[in-house]
Amino acid sequence: MSVSARRSRLGAGRHDDRRRDRLARQGRTADVRRFTTPAGGRALFVSSPAGNEELFLEMGKLGPQPTPKQLCMRNHGYGLSGSHRTTSSQRFEVCPVPFVTVGQENSAPIDLYHEDHGSGRPVVLIHGFPLSGRAWERQERALLAAGRRVVTYDRRGLWRSSWPATGYDYDTFAAGLDELLTALDLRDVDLAGHSMGAGEVARYLGTFGFVRVRRAAITSGVKPYLLKTPETRHGAPQKSSTGSALTAACAAYFTECNKNFFDLDVTLGSRISAEAVQGEWNTAVGASPIATVAGVATWHSDLRTDLSKIDIPVLILHGTEDRALPIEACSPRRAELIRPVAQAFRRIGTLSSSSLKTTGGKP
């Protein structure tokens, strides 16, 4: 054995001893074994007498397949993605992973994490900024109980999806959504977007049409065009301080932002708990710093042409007390641009009387 190989083995042994010590401090004794994965990388297997199993992959040594991103849980252990199986003594089964590859950045794939549950006609739910697919957890439960197939996903740069340095614009978001629908072969879809996700719905329908989509829903959607012009009197100034505030102090920004996001002076303790607010703050600050700042420019996108192309039924829901995206600044113009929706609102009544009361709504 070469000197370098001996040093590597000694280093691995010391690392294993430290891991055993750490587990012992947690009241766990463990059998620690090393082995080679089917992809040619090295891994560390830990099995405790209680039956809990953990597989620690040595990141960066997995070879071309699978990537560290492509891991999943199966029977209290971690499995490797792909078509191989480990030996029976290792007790790990290779299983598929909930990622769809939508691009490549240098040596790494760009993957979208998604969850796909239930059966029946599919509903695809697109979250707002800077949330994740978990933002739809209550709606997902209700839809599953109603017998629907529900698909949620994390937008690129957020939470469990890849964090590339580029691609934070509606064209790229819509292309990623198309990749997801194609990979899952979803048809006759009901497509719903919240806040910034509503812009993604508009750009997708305006670009890719309605072959896979049956109808859509927009909840507390972003303005058709954010910036102030003679035609958009409710628009924002051409220059915004949001990007600089995020760059200077991201965590502090989201603490303040959540106050309007959830109308906390009214809803805290009655309609939303402090723990839920903390959870959304954790999601926001846990996103890619690059994506968080770059996403602000997306709010300035002009969605008017996309909305005018929509020729399927669309439901618009907007909270009358929405402070982040006030209803009068967003939904009346959207209804005018989407002709089927505008007709529906004329039949139902005014936007205020037909709106669903919600709390807050970030882009």
What is the fourth-level CATH superfamily of the largest domain?
Answer: Alpha/Beta hydrolase fold, catalytic domain
Give the DSSP E fraction (strand runs of 2 or more residues): 15-25%
Query: What is the radius of gyration?
Result: 24 Å
Structural class: alpha/beta
Strand order of the largest sheet: 6-7-9-8-10-11-12
The CATH topology of the largest domain turns out to be: Rossmann fold
Quickly describe the structure.
The protein has 363 residues and is α/β, with parallel strands linked by helices. The protein has 13 helices and 12 strands.
Structural commentary:
The protein is an alpha/beta fold and 363 residues long. The chain folds into 2 domains: 3-97, no CATH class; 114-354, 3-Layer(aba) Sandwich (Rossmann fold). Helix content is 37%, strand content 19%. It has a 7-stranded mixed sheet. Strands 1-2-3 form a 3-stranded antiparallel sheet, with no helix packed on it. β6 and β7 form a beta hairpin. α5 (242-248) packs across α6, α6 crosses α8 (274-285) and α11 crosses α12 (339-348). The chain is globular. The termini are far apart.
